[in-house]
Specification:
The chain is of the alpha/beta class. The chain contains 11 helices and 12 strands. It has helices at 12-32, 39-52, 63-73, 90-98, 117-123, 143-153, 205-214, 236-266, 295-304, 332-340, 352-367; strands at residues 56-60, 81-85, 102-106, 128-132, 156-160, 168-169, 172-173, 180-184, 198-202, 281-282, 288-291, 341-344. The strands form 3 sheets. It has a 7-stranded mixed sheet with strand order 1-9-8-5-4-2-3, sandwiched between helices. Helix 1 runs antiparallel to helix 8 (236-266). It binds pyridoxal-5'-phosphate. Pyridoxal-5'-phosphate is lined by residues 62-64, 88-89, 91-92, 134, 160, 162-163, 184, 186, 196, 198.
Length: 370
C-alpha cells in the first residue's frame, strides 16, 4: 500500500497561494496596454538588482540569453575560451557557444560539487578570456579563489546565478563578485516566472548600455540600430508576476534553508554526501542534492515509497554531444558525481509531513544495508 505521494516539485501550490494578486497584476497590465519593456520591466530591473545589491538589472528572455548576451556585450567570441564547470545544466555551455566562443570544462570539487579552483588553473591558456563559475544547486562557488585567479590571469569573471537567487558568500551576494551576474527566472527556479525570463545584473554602466541595445535588435535609439542584436526582451506580464514573487523570495529561501537543515540533521549518520554549507556560505537550496554510491537503488526504493526524486545531472557537459567535437580534458570528479547525485524534494511549499515521509523512506533504505 502506498499511503502517500511526495511530488518532486509542485508549482501549483505556489500559484494557489498567489492567485488573487496575480490576477490583479494581469488585469492592470491588460488595462495599461504596454506589453513588452514597459514600467513593470523597469521596476523589476530596479527591485531585483537592489535585492542583489548591485548597480542595475537588464531584463532578458532567459538565463541562457543572460549569459550569451553578456559574453557578446563583453566582446567575447571567435577563438576565445570560457572556462566553466563540467557539472551544470547544459545551457551554461550552450550560451557560450551561442556567443561564438568555446567552452572549456574544468572539474569540480567532490565535496561542494562546485568548480574546483585548481582544475580551473590547469585549464588556462593564452586564449582564455572568461571564467564562468556556476553557483550550482544554490550554493555559492568559491568566489574568493575565482576572483583571485581572474585577477592573476587578467580574466573576466562572469557568474551563472541561474540557481542561486539570494545566495551569498561572506556576506557578498552572488552576481556581484564578477563583471556581471546572469539569472534565470524559469518557472522552477527560486524566483520563477510563468514562462521564460532572465536578467543580467551589473554595476558597469557601459556593459549595461550594451546589453540594453543587444536585447532589442541592437538598437541605438528608437530609429537607429548600431549592431546586430537579438530579440530578447522581457515582457510586462512576466515582470509584474516576478515583482509579486520577489517580495516573497526571502521568506521562501528561509523556508528552503529550514527544510535543508532538517534533512542535514536527519541524514548526518548515513553513508551519503550532504550539502553542508561551509563557513560564510549562504546556500539557497535551489536543489537539495545528496551523493550516494547506490544512487540508482536508492532512487528506485524511494519511487516505490511514493517519493519522487530527480538527477541533476546524469551526463557531465564535456560528454554532451555538441561538446565532444573537440577533445576535452578528463573531469573524473564530475563523471563520478554524475553517477552519485540525487536530488530530493525541497521547495518552500513542501509540507513538514511530506518531508518526514522522505526522511523515513531514505533512512529505511539504509536500515536494511550492511
Ligand atoms: C536554468 C539554468 C540556466 C538557463 O536558464 P534558462 O532561463 O532556462 O535559459 C543556465 N544555467 C543554469 C545553471 C541553470 O540552472
Amino acid at each position: 500500500m502506498r499511503a502517500f505521494r511526495v511530488p518532486f516539485l509542485d508549482l501549483t501550490r505556489q500559484e494557489r497561494e498567489l492567485r488573487e494578486e496575480l490576477l490583479r497584476g494581469l488585469s492592470q497590465i491588460l488595462e495599461r496596454g504596454r506589453y513588452v519593456l514597459g514600467p513593470e520591466v523597469e521596476a523589476l530591473e530596479r527591485e531585483f538588482s537592489s535585492f542583489c545589491g548591485s548597480g542595475e538589472g537588464i531584463g532578458v528572455n532567459s538565463g541562457t540569453d543572460a549569459i550569451a548576451l553578456s559574453l557578446r556585450a563583453l566582446g567575447i567570441g571567435g577563438e576565445d575560451e570560457v572556462i566553466t564547470s563540467a557539472l551544470s545544466a547544459p545551457p551554461t555551455a550552450i550560451a557560450v557557444r551561442l556567443a561564438g566562443a568555446r567552452p572549456v570544462f574544468a572539474d569540480i570539487d567532490p565535496l561542494t560539487l562546485n568548480l574546483d579552483p585548481e582544475s580551473v588553473e590547469e585549464r588556462i591558456t593564452s586564449r582564455t578570456r572568461v571564467l564562468l563559475p556556476v553557483h550550482l544547486y544554490g550554493r555559492p562557488a568559491d568566489m574568493v579563489r575565482m576572483e583571485h585567479i581572474a585577477r592573476e590571469h587578467d580574466l573576466i569573471l562572469l557568474e551563472d546565478c541561474a540557481q542561486a537567487h539570494g545566495a551569498s558568500l561572506h556576506g557578498k551576494p552572488v552576481g556581484t563578485w564578477g563583471k556581471a551576474g546572469c539569472f534565470s527566472f524559469y518557472p522552477t527556479k527560486n524566483l520563477g516566472a510563468y514562462g521564460d525570463a532572465g536578467m543580467v545584473i551589473t554595476s558597469d554602466p557601459a556593459l549595461a548600455r550594451e546589453l540594453r541595445s543587444l536585447r532589442d535588435y541592437g538598437r541605438a535609439d528608437r530609429d537607429r540600430v548600431e549592431r546586430i542584436g537579438v530579440n530578447s526582451r522581457l515582457d510586462e506580464l512576466q515582470a509584474a508576476f516576478l515583482r509579486l514573487k520577489l517580495r516573497r523570495l526571502e521568506a521562501w529561501n528561509t523556508r528552503r534553508r529550514e527544510l535543508a537543515r532538517r534533512y542535514l540533521e536527519a541524514f548526518s549518520d548515513l553513508p551519503v554526501g550532504l550539502p553542508t554549507p561551509s563557513r560564510g556560505e549562504e546556500h539557497v537550496y535551489h536543489l537539495f542534492v545528496i551523493t550516494c554510491r547506490e544512487r540508482d537503488a536508492l532512487r528506485e526504493h524511494l519511487a516505490r515509497r511514493g517519493v519522487e526524486t530527480a538527477v541533476h545531472y546524469s551526463l557531465p557537459l564535456h560528454r554532451q554531444t555538441p561538446f565532444t567535437e573537440v577533445e576535452n580534458p578528463p573531469c573524473p570528479q564530475a563523471e563520478h558525481a554524475a553517477q552519485c547525485v540525487l536530488s530530493l524534494p525541497l521547495y518552500p511549499q513542501l509540507t513538514d509531513r511530506e518531508q518526514e515521509e522522505v526522511i523515513a523512506a531514505v533512512r529505511d533504505f539504509f536500515r536494511h544495508r550492511p
